[in-house]
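#dry-run=false #mode=assembly
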Amino acid sequence: GENVEQHPSTLSVQEGDSAVIKCTYSDSASNYFPWYKQELGKRPQLIIDIRSNVGEKKDQRIAVTLNKTAKHFSLHITETQPEDSAVYFCAARQGGSYIPTFGRGTSLIVHP
Amino acid sequence: DGGITQSPKYLFRKEGQNVTLSCEQNLNHDAMYWYRQDPGQGLRLIYYSQIVNDFQKGDIAEGYSVSREKKESFPLTVTSAQKNPTAFYLCATDKGGNYGYTFGSGTRLTVV
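#status=ok
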C-alpha cells in the first residue's frame, strides 16, 4: 500500500519568512496530492491540491510542487502570517475509488 | 460546516457505555468516512462507505460500528469494546472522482 512521510513534524518561523513542508510517497500510481490546514480544535480544510500532470500550482501565498520522478511534493508558504499557524497535512491518492493516505502532519508556528 | 453536520460537538462517555456520533451531509456525496485524531497525531481511518448499504473497515475499526442506511447519514457507534475512545472524531465526504475531502467540524469524545 501507499506510504506517505511528512517532514518536519514541527516548523517554527518568524512572521514574513517562508515555510516549506515536504512529503514523500511510495506508490507511483498515486496521482492526486491535496494539502489540508487544521487550526487548533477545528476541522481540516483543503487549501491546495495538485495532480500528477502538472509540476507546480500557486494560489496567492501558497504553492505546491510535485516531482513525480523522486516521488515527493512540497507545500510552500511565502510571507508567513500568524494566522498561518496550524497543522498541515499532506495526502496522496491514486484515484477516486482509493482511500487517500495522509502524512502525520506538520505543526507550523509563525511568531509575530 | 460546508454541508456536513457532526453532533454533538462534545460527548462524555461512561465506562461500559455505547455512544453514537452523528454525521449528516447535504452535499449529495456518495462516499463518507470516519477518522480518529489523537493529540499531536495524524488522521486514522475507522470506517468508510462509498455507497448506501455498504461500508468497509479502515485501519482501526475494532470497537467501532457504523451503518449507512441513507446517503445523507453515516453514524458511528463507539462501543464498550473500544478501551481508549477519548479522541477527536472527524467525519468526511468526497464527491467521487479524484478530489479532496470535505470534513465536518468534529466531535470531541471524552471518557469520564
